[in-house]
User: Which sequence fits this backbone?
């Protein structure tokens, strides 16, 4: 059998097969349906991309403006480790998203963990956190169960009032007589922080959404003042919340 | 610009080339009902692209798409598992099957690996050159040469028992 014979055999094998009468109509119907589905899929994909883009922009905006009020962003690896340690020490699950800020103050690790605000404060836009402290490589224990933030402004601070809806930042003072005083502050990105003691000494540091610790020397930690400068050089005072000086 | 909702010339194309394409698909699949389904699927996929294809060689495009689908389908582990259960050859002594020349040839074709089958059909039925076949299947000319030669040998062996099948009918018919 050569290739000519093979061709004849193949021709014979298929010669009886004809296209069904409605085949062309079926194909056209199916093709139109497929094109509609494809167009639908393209439109859906486009909408998805637009939505993803919008969410991305919103997230970036949120990161810039309110990182301390919302942890929609992926937390840094240190926050993951902190959450793991907290989970281990407390026996309950703490996620990195619940960790608002973390820092090292002397030989202590300070962690602010998100909690629900009291209803009246929440209604006014306020938020709340707990402070957990671990000394050395010891276990974390809770030193404050309620620290409010984003709740109020110092009187007649117009910049603060304007910024409050999108987040001011949070402030805690860790005061250990004989061991030091540390200001633990977390503010939205791209802001600078200036800590001033009643004695008149000022320490300026770049702000950090996940927490900055500034050591100060003061006899009156309750009178520490923290100013936050925005990129446009306007500034507001970050109020020290009630119970914001932790001494235990 | 939004393409038109219907392509009258696409319907003309299906009417004009459909029979040749169906026969090609039958040889590629070795099964008429599978071939019809495959051809319908490929043509439906061709329809949205028609405005780009109509000025080229749409029949060649469809043939190529059919061949690639047959080869890719074979690569699927699921299809491989299922095909293993289907006997490639007629059981010995199945005189009814032997009597059916057409079924015998299709069964013999089906027993070839898909790429080899595609080469045999494109080379010996469609009449494409080695170069054209290689381009359509995305392989080298050398691979086409060896596959066509081995395919012919295997078909010769498989059909040797069907010597009574008259050859030469419709010789020269356009595929």
Assistant:
């Amino acid at each position: 059998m050569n290739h000519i014979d093979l061709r004849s055999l193949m021709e014979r094998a298929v010669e009886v097969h004809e296209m069904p009468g409605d085949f062309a109509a079926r194909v056209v119907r199916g093709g139109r349906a497929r094109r509609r589905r494809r167009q639908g899929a393209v439109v859906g994909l486009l909408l998805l991309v637009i939505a993803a883009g919008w969410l991305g922009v919103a997230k970036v905006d949120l990161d810039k403006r309110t990182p301390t009020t919302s942890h929609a962003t992926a937390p840094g690896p240190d926050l993951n480790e902190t959450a793991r340690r907290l989970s281990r020490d407390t026996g309950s699950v703490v996620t990195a998203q619940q960790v608002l800020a973390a820092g090292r103050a002397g030989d202590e690790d300070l962690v602010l963990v998100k909690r629900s605000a009291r209803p009246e404060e929440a209604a006014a836009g306020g938020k709340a956190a707990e402070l957990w402290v671990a000394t050395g490589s010891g276990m974390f224990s809770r030193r404050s169960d309620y620290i409010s933030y984003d709740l109020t402004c110092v009187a007649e601070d117009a910049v603060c009032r304007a910024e409050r809806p999108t987040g001011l930042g949070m402030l805690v003072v860790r005061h250990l007589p004989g061991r030091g005083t540390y200001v633990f502050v977390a503010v939205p990105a791209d802001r600078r922080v200036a800590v001033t003691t009643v004695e008149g000494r000022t320490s300026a540091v770049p702000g950090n959404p996940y927490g900055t610790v500034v050591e100060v020397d003061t006899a009156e930690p309750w009178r520490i003042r923290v100013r936050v400068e925005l990129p446009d050089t306007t500034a507001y005072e970050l109020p020290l919340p009630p119970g914001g000086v932790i001494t235990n | 610009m939004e393409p038109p909702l219907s392509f009258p010339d696409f319907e003309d194309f299906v009417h004009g080339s459909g029979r040749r394409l169906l026969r090609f698909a039958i040889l590629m699949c070795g099964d008429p009902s599978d071939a019809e389904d495959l051809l319908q699927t490929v043509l439906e996929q061709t329809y949205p692209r028609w405005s780009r294809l109509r000025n080229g060689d749409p029949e060649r495009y469809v043939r190529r798409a059919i061949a690639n689908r047959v080869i890719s389908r074979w690569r699927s582990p699921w299809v491989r598992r299922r095909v293993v259960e289907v006997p490639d050859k007629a059981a010995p002594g199945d005189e009814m099957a032997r009597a059916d020349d057409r079924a015998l040839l299709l069964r013999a074709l089906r027993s070839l690996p898909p790429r080899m089958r595609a080469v045999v059909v494109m080379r010996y039925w469609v009449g494409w050159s080695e170069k054209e076949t290689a381009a359509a299947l995305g392989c080298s000319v050398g691979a086409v040469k060896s596959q066509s030669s081995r395919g012919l040998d295997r078909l010769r062996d498989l059909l040797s028992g069907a010597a009574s099948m008259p050859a030469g009918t419709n010789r020269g018919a356009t595929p």
